[in-house]
Write a structure and sequence with these properties.
Elements: E1 2-6, E2 9-12, E3 17-24, E4 31-38, E5 45-51, E6 57-59, E7 67-72, E8 77-82, E9 91-99, E10 107-108, E11 112-117
Parallel strand pairs: 2-11
Antiparallel strand pairs: 1-3, 3-8, 4-5, 4-9, 5-6, 7-8, 9-10, 9-11
Length: 118
Amino acid sequence: VQLQASGGGLVQAGDSLRLSCAVSGGTFSQYIMAWFRQAPGKERESVATIRWNTPMTYYADSVKGRFTISRDKAKKTVYLQMNSLKPEDTAIYYCAAKPVGAASYGWWGQGTQVTVSS
């Protein structure tokens, strides 16, 4: 499985940004897709997850109501729509995948930088 993240950039507080994660090299019907982020000096944290075959989603409290995770099965792409961005959202964002039931995420994208200026 290969994951290719894109869409990061430099924006101002209150702006929106959409990240994309192109997925290839596997069958994803029983996968959970996720977006993580890691800010300087902080541990990597889970931001949002979605099951490939169902609309079941999870959001961290810090992004709930502002971020939306979705997937386009035909395009084999997972998105993270980020609205009302805050400076504390500044981080490297990673997409990841794991089979349902797996304890940890085994496939990771290369990361894309999101910087939000105040």
